[in-house]
Amino acid sequence: MKVINSLRTGIQSAFFSLLCISCSQGLHYEQSHSFTYDDFASQQTLQGRRMELDSLIMRPLDIQVDDSLLWLIEYGRDRSVYVVDLFIGRTRCGRLQSGQGPDDVVQPVFMQSVADSLYLFDVATSRVLRYGRAEFLAQASPSPSGSVRMSPSVFVRAEQSGGRIYGCTHRPGSQLAVYDASDGTLQDRLIGYPVCGKEYSDAEKVEAFYTNFTIGGNGTLGLCYSMTDLLEFYRPDGTLLRRLHGPEGFFAHFKEHRNGEVVTSSPDKELSRDAYFCPRAVGDRLWVLFDGDFVNAPDNDFSCSCLMTFTWEGVPDALYRLDDPLISFAVDAEHRKVYGISVRPEFHVVEYAY
Fold first, then answer.
1. How far apart are CA 240 and CA 236, in angstroms?
2. Cα distances (angstroms) measured from residue 9 to each of 100, 301, 345
């Protein structure tokens, strides 16, 4: 029976792949450069080491590394941020209560941190919070040294570069908004949606081109799409530097649904695939996870077994194949280590040396 089921799954995957190729004929992203797995300058298979930590890891969703400290964000626990000492594998502290209080957070994610500061973006309240790392570690209930609320609201992610905050606004007109970092007021809107010859309604567009982004040290914006294997590199003013389509060259397939005045959209599960997740700016490289699975695959849990790097000029650099797939990761470039969150078979932290 296992052999029959395996054969059936293989035939189904092959059929879906052929169907996607057929449906994508004639489609091409304007100003895009195609690439494949063979275009990476180096390829390596990494063996992960599951980390044994003293405290129970529940459901961590974001991760950051700072020298000898590993920072984890977990929802649904007494505290939202937990700090682990990598030398001894022990939890050093838990910080930030989840709630509506002035110093509480609701749905925090890590931003790129600068020098001795820790930056968090609270997605639920559209706030950027800045903490001194030393004070954050020393105080049981740290207060932010800076807090900025963006208006209109930011969704998914925000990053700060210089005196500006960039954020995903999930609007059909433009992908990113730019805010004054001192008071959160809107300054500009940047970057339209890619054009590929396929028509999308407004509701379909914002979901089909669901994106995440990061910012390089030179201010370059790296956009990574989750439902089409597309990456884009932009100057800080929103001018396109390079658009890459690959390594498999698929497109996003969404359907609009109307219920009275309510308009939504959802992926065509027979055609849709997961693409890029969790972009990170690490020195002179963009790092990002890649999936490639069909959304209706029976074991699809957003885990990614490929970790890729690109130069900020948009050139494929390194491809790492992971034996323990990840949903989020952080890179310690000095010690050439990757720390990631895995959900198979349950949540845990894994370390890779590259």
1. 10
2. 47, 17, 21
Task: Compute the distance between CA of residue 292 and CA of residue 92 in angstroms, rounded to an integer.
Answer: 37
* Nearest CA among 102, 93, 166, 163 for reference residue 133: 93
**Tokens at residue 146, please?**
């800076």
Q: Does the pLDDT value for residue 132 go beyond 90?
A: yes
> Which of these, 348, 353, 343, 282, lies nearest to 89 by C-alpha position?
348
Q: What rounded mean pLDDT belongs to the chain?
A: 91
- What pLDDT is attached to residue 23? 47
Q: Which helix (H) or strand (E) holds 263?
A: strand 262-267
The answer to whether residues 256 and 266 touch, using CB atoms and an 8 Å cutoff, is: no
Per-residue DSSP letters for 93-155?
EEEEEBSSSTT-BSSEEE----TTEEEEEETTTTEEEEEEHHHHHH-SSPPPSEEEE-BSPPE
Q: Residue 63 in contact with residue 329, Cβ under 8 Å? A: yes
The dihedral built from the CA positions of residue 45, 215, 30 and 192, taken in this order, carries a sign that is positive
Cα 68–Cα 72–Cα 76 angle in degrees, nearest 5: 155
Task: For residue 338, list its beta bridge partners.
Answer: 331, 352
Q: Count other C-beta atoms under 10 Å from residue 349's C-beta.
A: 22
Q: What local confidence, expressed as pLDDT, does residue 114 receive?
A: 80
DSSP state of 273: B
Choose among 248, 257, 211, 322: nearest CA to 16. Answer: 248
Which DSSP string do the residues of 186-215 spell out, in sequence order?
EEEEE------S----HHHHHHHT-EEEEE
| pLDDT of 5 higher than 90 | no
Q: Are 113 and 90 in contact (CB under 8 A)?
A: no
* Residue 83 CB partners (closer than 8 Å, separation 6+): 69, 70, 71, 72, 91, 92, 93, 94, 95, 137
In this predicted model, what pLDDT tens digit does every residue of 14-48 receive, in sequence order?
A: 444 444 444 456 899 999 999 999 999 999 999 99
